[in-house]
Structure formats: C-alpha cells, structure tokens
Amino acid sequence: MSNISNSSSMTSSDVSPGESLKLVIVCVGLPARGKSYITKKLQRYFNWSQFNTKIFNVGNTRREKHTGPSEVPVLGPISNNCNTAPKKQEKSTENRHIGTSTTHDASFFDSSNKENLKLREKWAKETLNRLLDYLQYEDGNVGIFDATNTTKNRRKWIVETVTSRMKGSAKILFLESICTDGELIEKNIHLKLMGPDYRSMKPKLALEDFRNRLRNYESVYETIDEIEEMENQKYDVQYVKIINAGKKITSYNISGYLSSQCVFFLLNFNLTDRQIWLTPNGETEDDVRHIIGGDSDLSTNGWKFAKALPKFIARKRQEFNLRQLNKQFVKNSDFFSFHNGPHIEQKFNVWTSTLKRTNETAQYFSHNEYQMKSFRMLNDICYGSLDSSKDYDFRIDHFDEYYNMIQNKLSYRFPGLGGESYLDLISRLRPIIIELERCKEHVLLISHRVVIRVLLCYFMDLSKEMLTELDVHHGYIYCIEPKPYGLDLKIWQYDETTDDFYEVDEIELMKRKRKRLSLSVDNEYKPVLKSCNSNAAVDESYASDDDDETKIQKEPSITDIKQYQKVFCERSDSQCYEFMDSNTGKERSEKSNVEKNSDTKSISDKPLEKAINTPDVQDKLDEQISSILANKELVSRLKEASYIDNMYSHNGSLVIFKYFVGRRK
Amino acid sequence: MSNISNSSSMTSSDVSPGESLKLVIVCVGLPARGKSYITKKLQRYFNWSQFNTKIFNVGNTRREKHTGPSEVPVLGPISNNCNTAPKKQEKSTENRHIGTSTTHDASFFDSSNKENLKLREKWAKETLNRLLDYLQYEDGNVGIFDATNTTKNRRKWIVETVTSRMKGSAKILFLESICTDGELIEKNIHLKLMGPDYRSMKPKLALEDFRNRLRNYESVYETIDEIEEMENQKYDVQYVKIINAGKKITSYNISGYLSSQCVFFLLNFNLTDRQIWLTPNGETEDDVRHIIGGDSDLSTNGWKFAKALPKFIARKRQEFNLRQLNKQFVKNSDFFSFHNGPHIEQKFNVWTSTLKRTNETAQYFSHNEYQMKSFRMLNDICYGSLDSSKDYDFRIDHFDEYYNMIQNKLSYRFPGLGGESYLDLISRLRPIIIELERCKEHVLLISHRVVIRVLLCYFMDLSKEMLTELDVHHGYIYCIEPKPYGLDLKIWQYDETTDDFYEVDEIELMKRKRKRLSLSVDNEYKPVLKSCNSNAAVDESYASDDDDETKIQKEPSITDIKQYQKVFCERSDSQCYEFMDSNTGKERSEKSNVEKNSDTKSISDKPLEKAINTPDVQDKLDEQISSILANKELVSRLKEASYIDNMYSHNGSLVIFKYFVGRRK
C-alpha cells in the first residue's frame, strides 16, 4: 500500500539552519558556583542532541603539568572538573584521576603573585588552543572553556584569541554563574572538597585552604557589566548570567541556534528532589509473535506487569517521602541535597505514548493519585512500511534495509510512510527532555524500548554507540534522581514468578549492549538468518521481544551466560562474504538472477539439512565456505565486531554461532 | 498491512503536563516601549499553539467609557492596543475603531491629579476582573493585562487581586519592557501617534502631548527590583524583563510550561528586515490522479513551476536588496523600519520537507547562492493508513473517518501508522516557528499545502477555523515581511501560460475558505460523492489537487466565479439525511446490511443514469428525496453551512450543486 521512499539524500531531522554551528562557551565565575555542574549538563544535552561538545578545563591542564607538589604558585583558573572531555557518565568523583592528586594550595591562587603570570597564561592558552583545534580540525560543534575567567582582561584576551583564530566562524557565549545564596555556596564548597585538588587533604585543612583560595579570586572578580557589553559589541559577544542556580537568568545578545538552545535549556533545569521513572511497556501479543511496531494489546505477562507496577511505584513513592521527611528531623543528614526546607509531597505524573500497549500498562494507576497524560512524542519509533512485519522476515525480505541499518544505525530511516531514524527520534524527544528537566514533580514515563533506550542515553550520558545498542528489556524499570553531583540511577527487574521487583546492578546494565545476529544470504542469493530450533534466537534489534533466552538473571552464572543458540544459514556465497567483509568498504557487487526456490520456507523446520540440490552449486558453495573459513583475519574481525562467536562448515552449510546471555525457560 | 488504531481516548499532542495551565501576564513599562508589539506576538503564538489567549487593555476600557471628549482627567494606564481581544490580523491601525477617537490629553495622565484616583482604579479593576473571568469561567489559558503598571503599588494590588481570586490556580508573570535605545523609542513614539488617542490630532500637537504624557509616567516609574522580588516571594511571582526589544532579557523565578514557553519565544524573536517565503510544492503526479499523501514525482506542470521559481525568487531578492540600499541614501524614508544601518545582504535559505515533491520543487536553486536544507518537520500531514488512497475513495470507503474528520477538524487524527491530526502538526511545526522567528536571514519554505496553511495561520493570526479551512493552492507563493506594526503579506500566483508570477489580492485570499463537498450515501447505504463529469469536482480537502477548476484568476469575474460543477449522488436515504443534519447533534443511527453492489464503480462514468434497479427501492428513494427537499429548514441550513449551493431531484437521484470559484481550462 505504501510506496513511499524516504531515501532522500538530505536526512537532517533537526532544526539547525545553514548558519555556522560552532560555539565557544566561556565560563565565568568564582569557584564553587556550580559552573561544572552546569557545563556538564550542557555537554550532556548537546552531545545527546548530536552536537559534539567537549569541556576544556584549565585546572586539568594545570594538574597535568604538575602531578607532583607544586613549587610554582600559579593563578590559573580552576574548576573541579577533572576530565578534559568526559565521554561516559561516572558514578562518583572518587574514581577519577587516581594518582594525580595535586597540592596547589591557596597561595598558588594569590593574584598578587606576579612571577607566575607567564606560566599561568601559557596553560590557559594551551587549553583554549586545544578547544579551538577541536572546533576547527575535529568534528567539534561546542567547546566549553571551563575556568573562572573572573577578570575583564582575561575575557578580553579570550575574545580576541577566538576571533582571530576562528575568523567569525564560531560564536562566543560567556556563561557566568553567580551565587548570592550562602547556603548554596556552602554546599558547593563541600562538594568541591571531594574534588581532585583536595581529595587527599584533611577536611578541615582543605576547607580552610579553599576559603583562602576563594578570597584570592574574590579580590579580583569583575562581573560582566554594561561597559563590557559595549566593548564586546564589535565581536558580537553573547552572554548568559545564571544567578542562584537558575532562579534568575539574564541573557544578552543571544543569536544562533546553539546559543538559543543553551539558554532555553538553562531556563528549564531545576534542582528539586524528585524521581524520574522510565519503563518500557509490558510485553505485548505482537512481542510474543516477534512482530515489530504494530499496536497490539498486552500479553498475559504484560498484563501481569501492568498490575504489579502501581503497587511497586506506590511503595517507592512512600519510601521517597519518608526519606524526605527524615531530612527535616535529621538536619544536614543528606548534605548534598539542594533543598532542606519542609517537604511537601509532590504530584506524581504518569506519561504514556498514544499506543495501546503503554496505555494498557498504565491502566491500573489510580487517576486520583496520579496525573495521567499521553504524548504522541513518546510513541515507538515508526517502522514505516516495515511496521508489523516479523522481525526476522524484515532482515530476510528486506536485506538491503537491514544492511543499511547496520551500517548507519543512527541515521538509518525506516522506509515508507512516516518511517523514522534514531536521529528523528532524538529530535522528537527533545521537548520531552526539556519537560523532564523543567518538571518539579515525579514522573513515570511508560514508553517503548527504543524510546527508553534513547532517554537513558541522555540521562546517563552514554556514548553515541549506546543510543542504538543499549540493552533495554521489558520488565525493567529505571529510576533517576537528580543530585548535585549528577544523577543517581537505580534499576529493578520484574519477576513474574514472585510477582515482585528486584534491584539489579545498574553499572553492569548500563554497559550491556544488545546482541545483534550475523547476516548471511540463502541459496537464492537472498539473505537468510535462522535459528537451529523453533525457539528462534532472533536478536532484539527492533522492538520485537527477544524471547526468554535473553532475559537477564539477577546474577547470571557462567553457564547461563554461555548457553547459546546455534544460528546458521543454509547457504553462503560471495554475497555473504562481501557483506561480512563490509569493514573493508567493499560493497555488495552482484545481484543473483537465480530464481527464488520455493523450498526456502520449509528449510527452517529441518535446519541442518542441505538446501542445495544441484551438485555443482554445492561444490561452488563448499569452496566458498572453505575460503571464508580459511580467511583467519576475516573470522577474527567478525568475532571482534561481535557479529559472530564462532562458525564452521557443516553438511555444506556455514553454521554461525551466537552466544546469548541469559537462561532458558 | 497496518492495523494500527490511534483512536486512543487521550489524544494530547502537546507537551503540557498536568499542572494548571492558567497564566496572567502583566505588562510593565512606559508607553512607547513596544509592549503592545510584544503582547500581540505572544497572543498570536499562544493562540496558534492552542492555548486560548486574550489581551485585556485598560486603555480600551478608558476609551470605551469616554467616547466623547474627556472632562475627567484620569491616570489610567494606557497602551496603543485598541482591541480587548483582537482575533484577526489587521493590515493597519488606520482602520480600527473609527469614530471612537478620544481626546484624553497629557494632563489626563498627570500623576499629581488625585481627584480621579477612584475612577482610574475602577477601570483597571474592571479590566482585570474581565481578564480573570476569562480564565475562570471561559476557556482562557492566558490573560494579558496590557497597561503600564509602572508603580509598585499598582503591581502589588494586581498580585493580591489575582491571588485572592484565582487561589493559586493561575501563575503571575510580569513582563517588563525597558527601552534605553533612544532611536527605538523615537520610532515607537511615531507609531504611537498613529494610534487611537492621536489619530485625529495634528502631528505636531500630538507629539508634544505624547511627550508630556510620557513625562508624567516617567516621574512615577518604578522598575521591578530585588526588593520587589523579595516581597513577591510568597506569591511565587515570576517576571521577565525585555530590554531594547530583546537584546537583553532577564527572567526571574520562571516555572510552569506557559511561562517557560513565553520566555523562550521572547528569546528568539528579532526585528531584522527579512523575508519569509512560503509555497506548497509544485503539482505532482499523485495530485493529477487525486491521490492523497504518497511520495510521487512532480507532474509536467509541477516541473514547470519548479523551473520558474528560482528566477522569480532571484528577482524578488534583488528588489529587496535595492529597497534596503535605497534606505541608506534616503535616510528615514522608511521610518518604520527598525534598522537603518548599512545594509549587508543576508543569506537566503531554502527549506524543504524530506519528501520528493518538495525537493524536486527546490531542485533548480543554485547551491552556491542558496543554503538548502530539508526538515522532516516540514513533511506533509501523515494520512496513516489512508495514505495513497484516492481522495474520493477515502470519503466513500472510509465514511466513518471522513465523518469524524468533518466533525473534529482540528483534533481528528488519521487512522493507522503515524497518522496525524492538525493538532499534531501544530506541535510538530512549533520548532519551525521558533526558527523562523529567530532567523535573521531570508527563508523560502517549500512544503505541503496543509503545512503552509498551518504556518500562514500563525503568521496572519487567523482563527482556529482557518487552521483547517484556509484555501491554499499549488502555484501560490506567500511572502511575509516582519514590520514594527505587525507583518506585511504579499501573494503571487504562478501562471503556466505566461510562465510568470502575478500578484494577487492577499486580503481576499486570507479570507477564502476551501470548498468542502456535501456527503451522501449510495444505494448500498455506503456514502458516495461523485462529480457529473470526468473532470471530477472533488474538494481540495486533503492534499489531492483540486483541478484547474479551482485555480483562481488574478481578478475573477462574476461569470468565472459562478461557473459551477454539478455534483450528485446516485441515491440518498435516511443516512444521508442524518449525516447532513449533523448540526442537530443526531448521530448516524443505522448501518446497512445490504451487500455492496459491484455496479457502483461503473456508475461514475454515466452519471445521470439511475443506479437503482428494483422499483420498490426506487420508490422508497423518491419518497426520501422528496422529504429531504421538502424540509426547507434543512436545505437552508445546508446552504448556510456551505455544504451545498443547490439541490434537486433528477431521474430519481438527488442532485447537489456546488459552485466553484475559478475558471475552466
């Protein structure tokens, strides 16, 4: 019915007009004013939005250069951010840069100490140059210059350096963080003492030293004022001032997509203690039948999950409230919570997509206690003309599509009407992210596995790869709590037998990629991918459930993990070879003219039999299989890329092994 | 293939969480600070986003009460906005409130004049109460209190009044407009003199009077400061300060979806002289075949249009540049342009959807001179499972869907995979609106008729009805220029015979609704809608083209306008009657069990013949037709609703006439 092709060469799914998309964000502000918190949030948002963003920290350059005790006091700006370019979320600051502790004490930051001027400037210059290299020669869109930059002179130097090097191809945005709320500053200072400069120092000494350091900075601090606005006019400099963690925001001269997005994002974040819950819909009838997309009802298991969910959430909600109430009695028990004021129970929102399976999963929530709302934006990725097809059929009947998808996981757009790519999904989910950042109430988001995957990648700052590869399953529920030092993640798994939820290791789970099967072609030169028994070991790939085989136990044992499913293809030929060898950049060069063999379908039932009838075809095949297996380099590369775990020749077929993590029913 | 139903009871297509969506925006600022410009823009944006918004202007209340010369000087705040709730775009201020000119001169606004205090407060109170009524008892989401509100006392009174009446169900956002740029103020003052208070006064006197009025206000003006921040803390009051038309923006305590949207919108508008061009794709092969949706190539006519387009745009671009250059020589020739600085030619962007038909329409633009980009957001409305169906088949085979659509034009969502509603479309287009407001460069947007319709409704502030009903055709190109007093719209029509574009009357065109045909049911009790000749006079409805019959001449003559197409249905019965009578709220009550007659298809070729074979069916039919025609009230209501223009009985059929505006080939 749908003959629409979306294979337009222009696939931008994002509003980002032709203007130059390079931005230098320059931090301004005293230490312990939440600069690093803000820049890290921005970095996460931009990277997730597919604008490559890195933080360049002068403090790190200083520490890099002086891993031992400092002898040369230097007025280099400093911040608590350790990584020049933190790519992955880290659970705590404790693990960072072990062994690179420094002892730059307060005297080091004394502004009257003139002798180190040159060295200090050299480090700042080095850091800024690295940032500009990133924008100019690498694929960087946003470089964040994380330092105090508290003097007009320093800022003037930055503006001139950026302008002369980038020649107008990058905009400059100063991001000044001001804090007039004493309590907030105190908290930030305590966070600071956990940072790299003070980790090895005694708390009391560290506090004293840091306060001295602050005084040194305060003595020279110049905020961005109207005179500077005028002076910077010719450079078209923009700024945004964030006062008291976003309570008040002043923006000046904002233009350009990235700057506008930056200010909008800063306008919407908040520090309220709250929980963001994410879970995919319960298992559906289509899942059981390995059908992707669609709009089917929940399966029996799905309904069971739907019934258990409200009870679990109610319990967790109560626990959260108790924790908050407790804080009022034991003051400062949770020092790193932003708000110690009287706890008023927040409202609890349940957001679903508009599809049946999420609405059914939310069905047992009481409308009196939960605010229900469904969003089209939370719908599953649209599979276009492949919607409602069996997930293995998709890979067999639409081999070109599957091949394309594997090659361009992020930008691959499903063909036909409405078909979406992961990039489209990110674009569609951006308003949801803004809403989740803005919302001060609890939210439980019941959506689809693809959507949950993309949202988790935002919150946990996972890599580009994980946007399409993170393992997300039915029955898992993720709880995110914003904290001053980042985010806390907890994960529970629903167990059908006990009808209850069990906590699982979130660090392990956030690293786990879903398994993808290898591909091959059948004896009609059509791709075939079949498991060796009826318990089809299909990959989770897109939306259809991955059977009980891939369900993860709380503590999977070695035998569980190594339990495998045999996967084989009836035939393998040059096409198969060439596809598998796609890393070399060779393309599939030939299309067979051999007619489709009507036997193909029946083959799946008697797998390890030969599907090839004519002897000369078989000979050619055997030869090819031998040549594939003989190519040790190819085999090892395939293993490395985790396309396969093992393969060998059996009865004239190339048999491919894939190991599946999990247990069998 | 697609068996997805989107008929979820929850159809919200917008991110607007469960929180109360009521907002009181309170203007603060001296006269001639662009308050009305900003509030009108906000009103337009919110209304288009389907948040009902009205401006309540104290100056209007004052003028309403005193249409004659004033005897009682009053210090009521004033603004140049005349309409308490301007719903439609107006081309110039000249046409407004003719005959209600007032002569409240400067002494009227003297703050030392104590005697009128009571009366002044009464008017402000009346206006604020009207606003709160709108939020509380009507369907209002946002009420804008447009007045100067320049004193702390006045603002305190507002906060207390709103809080005590709304009891926390509405948030308060102060919107202070500050102007320190002398040139900008001068321009605003000159605009002011065209307003209702000064229209009938001599320019020089008016200017003097207005300056005195300004001085009176300046003497008591108190900006929102930190003390007021503190005082208003318990009321959770938010504010945003716009300094020099958005150059600098300070926001305080912003929370809530509407406030956040408001600030984001204000962050992104700009006053640069530029052009926004909108045009639907050229005619496609699917259009010729009356197929909706799809992704076909352009037709011969479509390619002709695509070739002509870049030449036309290049000419218009040159004209624009000449105009801008001219301004530099004849200073102040265009006093109402914001920027008189040296003109630098802007870049010109061409934005398309990702579908073939828009990319093909853009194909002849030079990539050197134009910045090309395609956006998925600009794609046609998604017809879901009805995609690629013939548009009359849709109305016949999916009568329920069509019925639903006619009943709920805005919220009706096409069934099946990815199917969208107009509300979904608005939600999808919002980032495009923000980009168009933010962009300082020229943009030509080549999209689809439905999308162009929705975008035009935003820019021209058209009514809710026009969102689905505005007449938009292939070959039309709309040019929008932002001006200090609003927007300038010009429209050109492509003429294939001369291969050139001609300007058409934009006022007439912005009022014109597309024609929708009446509906009926066939002799199998299935709805049928057919034209009496092969030149099918189908309505434009959704995406399929409406033939040459409906193309509009530059100056259509009476005979052209009255040229009509006969439209008839083979049979009419009680279902027809009930559908047509849907205004009464009656629903279609019966479904026929009669089997589908295979003759139906062939009937269309020999239209005015009887489709009914059995005499008793014919008798029943004749009776029903007579009863329909006898119901004078029904007939006149159908005519009023422009479902039909005329109808009569002919050879046992009910013949319905629809007039089409335009000429035949």
TrEMBL record, chains A, B:
Q: Which residues form the signal peptide?
A: none
InterPro entries listed in its UniProt record: 6Pfruct_kin, 6Phosfructo_kin, His_Pase_superF_clade-1, His_PPase_superfam, P-loop_NTPase
Q: Supply one GO CC term from the record.
A: cytosol
**Where do Basic and acidic residues bias regions lie?**
87-97, 584-608
Q: Which CDD domains match?
A: HP_PGM_like
Please give the superkingdom of this protein's source. Answer: Eukaryota
Alphabetically ordered keywords of this record: ATP-binding, Nucleotide-binding
Q: Which GO terms describe its molecular function?
A: 6-phosphofructo-2-kinase activity; ATP binding
Where does the 6-phosphofructo-2-kinase domain start and stop, copy by copy?
Answer: 18-272
Q: Which Pfam families match?
A: 6PF2K, His_Phos_1
Where do the segments described as Disordered lie?
A: 63-105, 581-608
State any GO BP term from the record.
fructose 2,6-bisphosphate metabolic process
**PANTHER family per the UniProt record, alphabetical:** 6-PHOSPHOFRUCTO-2-KINASE 1, 6-PHOSPHOFRUCTO-2-KINASE/FRUCTOSE-2,6-BISPHOSPHATASE
Q: What is the name of this protein?
A: DEBR0S2_05160g1_1
